[in-house]
Amino acid sequence: MNSHKIYVPLDSAAVALGADEVVSAILAEASTRKIDVEIVRNGSRGMHWLEPLVEVEVDGKRIGYGPINVRDVTSLFDADFFWVLEIIQLALAWWMSTRSCAISND
Hints:
Elements: E1 4-9, H1 12-16, H2 19-32, E2 37-42, E3 54-58, E4 61-65, H3 73-78, H4 84-98
Parallel strand pairs: 1-2
Antiparallel strand pairs: 1-3, 3-4
């Protein structure tokens, strides 16, 4: 099984706001749920009000959540945050299919 790639900044602002503790909580929760994750420590996007920003990579795209604290980590896993992009894509495809209309030549 492939691991889920999760990005959490390592810059001083994110660390000061609890990024290291969030990483520890993510690893603990993933272990409890037997989910394979790969943590990538990256730089900040410069939006310090969103730090710590947690991004999960899905199909080569990143979905960001922030600001995240240790208490939020269980909720992220409960919400299946690894699959959110696929859920959005399925919902959008369904919605688009309901909007098609037939053109009549009457």
